[in-house]
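Attaching the record inline, Q. Sequence:
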Amino acid sequence: SVCLPACLSLFSPCLSFVSPIHSLTHSCAHMYQYVYTSTTAARFVSGVIRRDRVAVFERLLWRACRGNVFLRHHEIDAELLDPKTGNPTFKSVFVIFYQGPQLLLRVRGICEGFSATIYPCPDTVAERREMAMGVGTRIEDLRVVLGQAMDHRNTVLQAVARKFRSLYVKVQKVKAIYHTLNLFSVDLTTKCLIGECWCAVADWDAIQFSLQRGHAASGSVVNPILNMIDTPLTPPTYNRVNKFTAAFQGIIDAYGVATYREINPTPFTIITFPFLFAVMFGDCGHGLLMFLFAYFLVRKEKELARVKGGEIFSTFFHGRYIILLMGLFSIYTGFIYNDCFSKSFNIFGSSWHVNRKITKHMEDTVTLSLDNDFDTNNPYPFGLDPIWQVASNKLTFTN
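Structure, as predicted:
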């Protein structure tokens, strides 16, 4: 659509022979005039080519055809899309005048070698003008059609966007149903699906009720049949979890899954894991920050569950209850260690003090002796005595 009007605009300077372009000499211009004044009419080929290939394309045409062709080209200002790669590119429109079928074969071969696109163009001015008008009409029609198509697409997408969440859930449910049905085997005699699976004994009545409800909703004439099969196989381990115990169960499963009917250590881990972390951590200030962060995740869990924040955020969000308990226990052990942001509280006063003894001698000399003393009757009321912060063996003692 861009090429044809540009091609048609090249004919007027070529046919007028006012100024041949580039490196054509005066003798070449006379030869070009002779071609058109002779009895054998000259032909032409028009098309488009990439702008960066025009110079090499013109030079090769001149050498391969021994100067018996005449080339005019013009740059297309608009940026076009390559039909093969889809990448934006700049192109130039060209017209090549030749005489004879042999030159036509050479010209077409060179155009194919340079990946130039050749477009048909009428010989007469009236036909070219008529074709240009037809192309312009079709372009306008296509613009109208594309505009209407874009408006319709926007309308459809807006309608889908309002129902996207419900449609997404529905599609996921349908995919899950078909994925489960693909695990069934087909009985051709009774024309039904047969599936074998493990289920918890406590869920037997709920499964049977769901099958009956599905049968009533679907309107099927065949009643679903649920039977318990005796098997020598060892059943798989199933640990029922909720949003609070799921993270702790994941920690246990990372070390190993308990065998069937073995005691699940997850309930014990709910206390022991965060408490042992707090024994190691032992800072009520940092523990308070952890507790507040986890408390925010717990309070906003419905809103944050829909946020896709990456792997790190997902790790913190799924372990929010673990972080909550770790922060709570760290606050407790931080008070026991008397440690808040690596500083101690001296609320009740230290029970350690120094007894000063001053001795005067005959020579007017004074001797000061320091004796360490610990008040065994009044120890520090709660936690660690703050004087341990300046002790040289603090780390050894606290460990």
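The beta strands are 43-50, 70-75, 80-81, 88-89, 91-98, 117-119, 185-187, 192-194, 352-360, 366-374. The CA atoms of residues 199 and 249 lie 19 Å apart.

More tomorrow.
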